Amino acid sequence: MWAPPIPQGRPPMRVNLFQSIARLSETRTQQSVPPAASGPAQTQAPQQPSVPDVVARYLTDSFEAAGASEVIKQTKDSNCGAAVATLLSRTAGKDSASAAQKMDTLESRFTDGGGTTPEELAKMLAHEGLEVKKGTSNFDMPSVNEALARGQQVVVQLDTNRLATGVDSKIAGDSHWVVVDGMDDKGNYQVKDTNTGTKYSVSGQQIADSVGSAWELHQGGGMLVVGDPQSAMDEGTLVEKSSLHTSVLGNTDGGGSRARGSFGRESS
């Protein structure tokens, strides 16, 4: 099949499948249906791929990578918690070698290598001098907006398949940690995802639904508001204060594989 030549000096355009799926799910009800063709022969519209096909394409797609200083990419199938703590750390190096070393240190010190529970993530953050200021079992948008206005970040534990497709397929993806640290000009939340080392925008409702699916499919999920402590505190004090906010999220390990080709929960 003929394809137009690519102009010299410009790389071919890449399609971010995640954003395409997310936008499709948000705008589907607004799309008009074209009139049926007249005559005996009518062309049948192509069928949309099944949810598993869509998820498989998302999980194997290579997104347009963000800058190395913006989003850290996790180095193992289940160390997204350590990657998030490294990303938010005020002192950790963000180059690939320094970040990988920090992730290994945090993972080996605070987890058994099978993922990161909310309590373990709070301990990682305390080790990096950060305080968990609030925890909720849902994606509480008013609290998120207040936190962002104060310059804080929100770490969310959710189901990857629901986040990727926006579809309530009942097919479990991974329990996964992502960072929300801003909003775009359309009111969507900016997500930093160590799963792929990318950043993208998603509606608040889709994130909230993904947290709901995490509870249904993984028995845990929610969000943690993270920021600098108001006054100097040692690590033990930060752990004690932060632990007051983690139990509402449950005790499920958040992992998040970088390149999964199967469905269902990641074993831990």
From TrEMBL:
Annotated protein name in UniProt: Peptidase C39 domain-containing protein
Bias-annotated ranges (Low complexity): 259-268
UniProt-annotated stretches for the region Disordered: 27-51, 240-268
Residue ranges, compositional bias (Polar residues): 40-50
Organism whose genome encodes this protein: Myxococcus xanthus (strain DK1622)
Upper classification of the organism: Bacteria, Pseudomonadati, Myxococcota, Myxococcia, Myxococcales
